[in-house]
Each structure stands twice: as structure tokens, then as C-alpha cells.
Write a structure and sequence with these properties.
The structure is a homodimer. By secondary structure, chain A is of the alpha/beta class. Chain A folds into two domains: 58 residues, Helicase, Ruva Protein, domain 3, CATH 1.10.8; 219 residues, Uncharacterised protein PF01937, DUF89, domain 3 (Rossmann fold, 3-Layer(aba) Sandwich). Chain A is built from 13 helices and six strands. Chain A has a six-stranded mixed sheet, with helices on both faces. In chain A, helix 1 packs antiparallel against helix 2 and helix 4 runs antiparallel to helix 5. The two termini of chain A are 18 Å apart.
């Protein structure tokens, strides 16, 4: 997906949110904002938004030396999601359609996205719980779910691209409903925003139930060009990709692979691109793959 | 008032809204956005937001050659307000406190601000009518109104700084409640966003009831440095200033003159600066003048 003008305020908001986690020094905030504005003024708008975000977060890391501004936020999200986990697991187990319930909850977990929200405090325990409740009955593409079920059954090598810390606990619910031996779970190579890395996969026990690799990249999505050779080989070889979240959608929606995107729509640009409303729960198969 | 980071998305939105009125050519849109981002990256944040907006709109005019992108929008606003005028005049005339009602309506008229809104279509006939209705009963600083009444009575030379096209029809209601001979109504020197110029004062009949001058500037506010010598002399000599709208507040709130600001709060930055909520109706005397 290309970058739209509407993405620019979001880049700025994200940069300011990040830098405020690193220092209270307003002079530093202003320097970063100027550098970010200059960087955006030069950007290639044909590239996806995470490419710009990657550059911005590199710039902030380079300028401040702080490599993981969302470290504590990620721990908190993991802890909160782990607290909910037993109850969510019961919901799946007692459901008439455990796979559907697990897919719904995995999408609901995508609300824990500190890069996409307009105001950080919109992602709080209360909104997460409400999103979970709503997700169980929200309108949903039942026909795509049948395709998903079939594709999982037929696939032999599935890459499950995770998105955010905390959210990956919700992914675990879905992984438990699928043949684990076929699945490799993927995290980002380096911390960026609150995206999950190997540390989060360890903290939430994902590493104990399924094979986990990282993509070798610091992009908040799957920017194949900046992923490791090893990951790109795995991506090429996989016969099914499950991609969580907006960042993975933005970076992979044009890639000719069999990809199911699972995400919660948090911004009007992606809503327009997909053709749905902000707030929608999306399970969508990559049109390019068919 | 200084510029805050939160103002930056607004500069961009305003620039994009403006350039889309001039051309459908997306390549031009992108060039303008890059120039605007670069300009903002260099800006002096100690200056008020209208100083940056002035620079942005100069840049757009220079690049496109279009000197008045909001020309039609201003005509439409004037026409719509003129259609409402007789009924509003009746509301004032039949009020127990005509001055208060006129002040309330003059503030309500400040909703017609195409620079401040987050989405242009938020300013439509319906929202204007709702704002008018609400304004008659909304919470309001009654004690400041007494000061205002007293100040108008004692003043000998009043400058009434107008803000937007359409809105100036609402100002007319208030002017009619004051000694007209003391009042000079001020419009911007050159078109910028939908701010009123002499053309609007003519179209709405303000020129027929009171002396009208322009400030010689293309700033969306009263940026004294870029106003004409003649206007600055008049500003200096006046013993009371009535300043309408956010732009005049942002540019004059620190100026040591007896100024009453009348405005509708449309953005969280100004809400914080004044200490009120977005949506509030403000009648405030410049603290620096006391």
C-alpha cells in the first residue's frame, strides 16, 4: 500500500509519542520533530507507511541512543494479555466453532497497537476488554473463514507473522486451533514501537508451543527488502502466510503470495484501501494470490 | 501564543485543503506538501501559528499563482449568513439583554472557520444552525460581559477585528448594539483561507453601517509586524480592541492592549492555552491590559 497525505500527521504523532517516552527535554523533542519533518519532506510516497516509520524510528534511536522506548509498555501489554488468557481460552474451548472464535479473538488482540492509535490512552484495559467482547459477535466474513480453514488444512509450511506485544497472546489462542507442527511464528528482528520481538515471544510462552523466528528487520511491518536473507527464504518457501495487523497489511498487501490478513482497522486510510469502516474486524485473503 | 507540535498536522491539513481547491493534479499536491513540510521543519515555534500559516499560504500562492482559493467558499458563507440575518436580528431585538444575545451570536458565527476545522465538511449549514441555537443558552462569562459593556461605553476609538467571511454578518448584529460612530471594522489586507477581506465587508453590507479598513496583511490573524503602518497607527491609537476568532487570539493574546477576545474554541491547543474545553464560547479580556 502506498503512503497517503493522511499518514503524515500519524508519522508525527508516532514520533512525538516515542520521543516523549525517551526524554522530557523539550529541546530534544523539537530537534526530533524537525528532523522527522525534513525526512518526510523527502519521502517516496509510493512506498508503504511502515517504510517511513522505519526511517523515523531509526532516526530517533540514532539521535537518542535509546533502542527500545516501548520496552515497559510491551511488558505491561504482555502481562495484561496473559492475565486474560485463561478466560479467553475457555471462550474458545466452549465455543461451537472454536476456530472462528479464535480468529475473532486474534483479530481483537490487534487493538493493542500503540503505533496506530490517535491517542495512546485510547488503548487501555477497558477498551481492550470491550473490543474482546464486541469481537465475538461483530460482523465478520464467514466465507473467508471457510477459505482460511481449508487453506490451513492444505498448507504444509505456514508462516504466522505476529504484530504487537500483548497481541501475540491472542495469537496463541489461534495457533492452538491449528496444526502447530506446520507453523512458524515470526517476530520483528529489532524493537520498533510496541511490535513484538523474540523477548515478547519468550515472555508469553509462544516459544514453548511453536517454532519462532525473527524477520531480521526493524520495520513496523514486513518490509521484505530489509528482512534477513534467512527470513526471505522462509517467506518464499511457505505455502501460506497469516499476517497480523496494519503494518503487515500495509507492507504485504501487494505481494503475490497466499496471505490471509487478520487485523482490526484503526485508521481511515486502511479502511478506504480495504473498503470497510474504521473499527471493522478484517479477515481478508490477498487478492494477488488467487 | 507560541506554536505547539499539535499545530503541525493542522498546518498540513490546511495546506492540503487549500491546494485541493486550486488543482486536482496530485503531483502538485505532493510538491506543495513537501515544500510545506520543509518550511515547517525550519519554523520558529516561539512565533504564533498564524505566522507559519501565513508562510504556507504565501508558498501555495507563489507556487500555483492562485491568489484566492476560498473565493467561492467565502461567497457561499456570506450568502448563507445573510439569509439567516433577519431572523438573528429578531432574536437580538426580542431579547431581554440584546447586547448579550448579540455577543453570543457573534461568537457563534466564529464557527465558520475553514482554517481550524479538522474536516472541512464539519462546517456545514446544519452545524452552523446548531451552533447558533446552542450559543443562546451555552455557559458564558457574565461578569466579563459587564466589563465589556462598560469598556465599550467608556471607549472613544474601538477597532473591531473581524475574522471570517460569513462570520462578519454575525458581527454586524453586535456592531448594531454598540455606538457605531466609535467603531472601525477591520478586515485582512489580502485573501488568506476564508478570512474576510474588504470584498466580504462590501458583500455583507458592513461598509454601509460602519467605517471599514483593512490591516494590510496576508496573515490569518493580526500579525502586527506584517500589517501596514497605517493599521499599526490605528491599532496603537485605539483605546479598545474587539478581536474575533482564533487567529486574532493566537496573534494578539500577548499584546499589551485592552482587548476583548470573542471566539469559539475549535482546537485543543487553544483550549489548553485559555483553560477551557473545545467547543466553549469565549469572551475574554486580555490579562496583559489590566
Amino acid at each position: 500500500m502506498k503512503t497517503y497525505f493522511e499518514c503524515i500527521p500519524c508519522f508525527l504523532r508516532q514520533a512525538i509519542d516515542t520521543i516523549r517516552r525517551v526524554t522530557d527535554d523539550e529541546a530534544v523533542h523539537e530537534q526530533i520533530v524537525r528532523k522527522v519533518l525534513f525526512a518526510i519532506s523527502e519521502m517516496d510516497m509510493q512506498k508503504s507507511p511502515p517504510v517511513m516509520a522505519q526511517r523515523i524510528h531509526r532516526l530517533i534511536r540514532g539521535f537518542t541512543g535509546e533502542t527500545d522506548p516501548f520496552k515497559q509498555a510491551k511488558k505491561d501489554s504482555n502481562r495484561f494479555a496473559l492475565k486474560l488468557f485463561p478466560e479467553l481460552q475457555k471462550k474458545v474451548d466452549s465455543s461451537d466453532s472454536p476456530l472462528e472464535t479464535a480468529v475473532r479473538l486474534a483479530i481483537a488482540g490487534n487493538i493493542i497497537d500503540l503505533g496506530a492509535k490517535h491517542q495512546l490512552d485510547e488503548v487501555n484495559d477497558e477498551t481492550i476488554c470491550k473490543t474482546i467482547e464486541d469481537s465475538l459477535t461483530a460482523p465478520f466474513a464467514a466465507d473467508v473463514l471457510d477459505d482460511f480453514r481449508e487453506a490451513v488444512k492444505r498448507a504444509t509450511d505456514i508462516l504466522y507473522l505476529g504484530d504487537n506485544a500483548g497481541e501475540i497472546v491472542f495469537d496463541r489462542l489461534l495457533i492452538e486451533q491449528m496444526p502447530r507442527g506446520k507453523i512458524t511464528f515470526v517476530v520483528r528482528g529489532t524493537p520498533v514501537i510496541n511490535d513484538a520481538t523474540i523477548v515478547d515471544a519468550q515472555m508469553t510462552g509462544i516459544v514453548d508451543i511453536v517454532n519462532v523466528i525473527d524477520n531480521g528487520s526493524d520495520g513496523p511491518g514486513t518490509i521484505l527488502k530489509t528482512c534477513s536473507d534467512e527470513f526471505r527464504r522462509r517467506f518464499e518457501a511457505a505455502d501460506l502466510i497469516i499476517a497480523k495487523g496494519q503494518g503487515n497489511y500495509e507492507t504485504l498487501s501487494g505481494v503475490p503470495k497466499d496471505i490471509f490478513f487478520l487485523l482490526k482497522i484503526k485508521c481511515p486510510v486502511i479502511a478506504r484501501d480495504i473498503g470497510c469502516e474504521v473499527g471493522a474486524m478484517v479477515l481478508q485473503r490477498n487478492a494477488d494470490s488467487l
